[in-house]
Amino acid sequence: MKFLFLTLLFFYSAEKVKSVEPNEILENKQLEKVAREIGKNLRCLVCQNEDIENSNADIAKDLRLLVRKKLLDGESKKEIIDFVHSRYGDFVLFSPPLRFDTLALWILPLVFFLFLLYLFFRRKN
Amino acid sequence: MKYFFLIFSLLIFTFFFYKGLQKDPTIIPSNLIEKQIPNFKLRKTEFFSFFDKSNLLEHREPIIINFFASWCPPCKVEHPNLMKLSENFKIYGIAKKDNDIKISEWLKESGNPYTAIGLDDDGSASINWGVYGLPETFIVNNQGKIIYKQIGPITKNELKKINNILK
Asked: A105: distance to nearest CA of chain B, Å?
């Protein structure tokens, strides 16, 4: 029981730990919340598959500060994400935009799923 | 024939998978190629001449913009090649999170390839240029358009490539 409790606590706290440093956090809680939402959508450029909120890399810290500065300047979530996207391209977004050249990325999983469904039901019949 | 479709799609998948494996995931293609140089703000140094966006737009020939720092080992690797490039082309240096004294000590020792240097203290100019590591080098044509970006040090091969572009 104790073990289970500690394990749960471990996973719970692992979720809570972010790389955001105390001096980066905005006083305005609402804005800080938006900043974290933005941060979760932006991929750190030098660490494969980590968002900037969770990364200790220098560039992730710079981007976190930039996001917060822009929020304080009154820019919207979309404007900030668009700005970072314009500088670093699709790589920086966790969900790539739906375009002609990214179509396969979005549609293939669906096609694959339908194909498996087809195989599954065909066998049963 | 029954499995033709399956085998065919598997072959295509394998082909793209194999292609993908050969890519270097640490190199992210620049989103600024073929675009005008971005806005950026730098701080003046004490020992070197300074520049801003308007200085970069004055040129009638292509120029080189090099992001570097005295604390960055790969920047020292490419330094001799920058010296070679500086014989024929203007190189503007943007030093990320660095200080005057360290830069001047280093450049005194190994030569100064830069026409002018500006300091990027908080990394915001680097973000505006889409820089995510050091060193990174851009070539800007005479219309202020970015035509090439080199990520990582300029090695012998890269030097040839850059010389060809600048010709």
From this structure: 12
Q: Does B111 touch chain A (CB under 8 A)?
A: no
- Which chain B residue shows the shortest CA-CA distance from A115? B6
Residues A108 and A77 in one domain: no
**Strand B136-140 versus strand B91-96 pairing type:** unpaired
Phi, psi of B57, deg, nearest 5? -90, -5
Give me the domains of chain B, ranges plus CATH numbers.
31-166 (3.40.30.10)
B77 in contact with chain A, both atoms CB, cutoff 8 A: no
List the CATH number of the domain containing A36: 1.10.8.640
* A59 in the same domain as A110: no
Q: What is the pLDDT of residues B70-129, one digit of tens each?
A: 999 999 999 999 999 999 999 999 999 999 999 999 999 999 999 999 999 999 999 999
At A1 the three-state DSSP class reads: coil
> Cβ separation of A91 and B128 shorter than 8 Å?
no
Provide the residue range defining the domain that includes A125: 99-125
Task: List pLDDT tens digits, range A65-86.
Answer: 999 999 999 999 999 999 999 9
- List CB contacts (< 8 A) between A45 and chain B: 28, 132-133
Domain count, chain A: 2
Question: What is the complex's ipTM, to 2 decimals?
Answer: 0.84
